[in-house]
Amino acid sequence: MRALLCAAALAWLPAAQGAELALRETVMAVQPRLHLADVAEVSGEGAAALVSLDLGSAPRIGYVARWTRAQLQELVLRRTGRSVAVTGAQQVQVRMASRLVASAEQLALAMQAVQAAFGADGSLQATPLRAPAEVEAPQDARLAVRPLAGRPLAPRFEVWLDVLWQDAVYRSLRVELALELPRQLYVARRDLAAGELLLPADFEARPGNAALAGGLAADSLPSGARLRQPLRAGQALAASQLAPAGFLRRGERAVLRWQSGALQLEREGIALGDAAPGEPVQLRMSGGAVLAGRLQQDGTVQADLQ
User: In whole angstroms, what is the distance from residue 137 CA to residue 96 CA?
Assistant: First the structure.
């Protein structure tokens, strides 16, 4: 009944200053929202006021939206109070323009990212654990890899890709890779505690996959270096676990030195955090005060002058 009443009303109303819609038969949308000019050619007097009339969201990929002549006439009347003449197709079918994000495209970007992060010398070997699923995305969407900075190397590694469209994440994809970085590894012969000195007798040098070290493998055993974290027997030594000579561990005692001209004061305190020579550190003194300074190569802490 409503459609009949609208049709009768439209028959009695004059056209919107002579505006006319020539309805298209099919439309491939490229924007997230549809406008009247997307589905019809708008012409005649007053056309400029109608071309940007919003029709709502474009259909999702794989779906079809349909507009008939009568539906468009009713929408224009409801939104603008005007009637328009409609010619062309009896109805328009709208689909979202899309493209296939192929497995090969996903793998190529993921492998390029891990090579840039971990394989500067070209020795990193990356193979897919499984082929990524191919997905449909808007036609002008682009693929971007999430940053890998700060992530440890691992034999099984996930790379996340974002499909970006209209300055937003349309969807996210995961690529699973097996990584192998051939290196000479230093493997612990026994359990080693944090803070222990690195002695050649405690390690066996043998070829292996540096990804098993949980980071970039240590390429040597520096004299006087200690362990930042415990290392179990059979584990490979990672570069991040090396503490340089003079390294101060949390809970260890150190001398805080304060000097002004010829006056020099020294007090002992307990380190509240780890620090390498040249790095800042805080010490808790015997009276409970917390003082800050910078660790020196000789193991003392030079107080910050306020």
Answer: 9
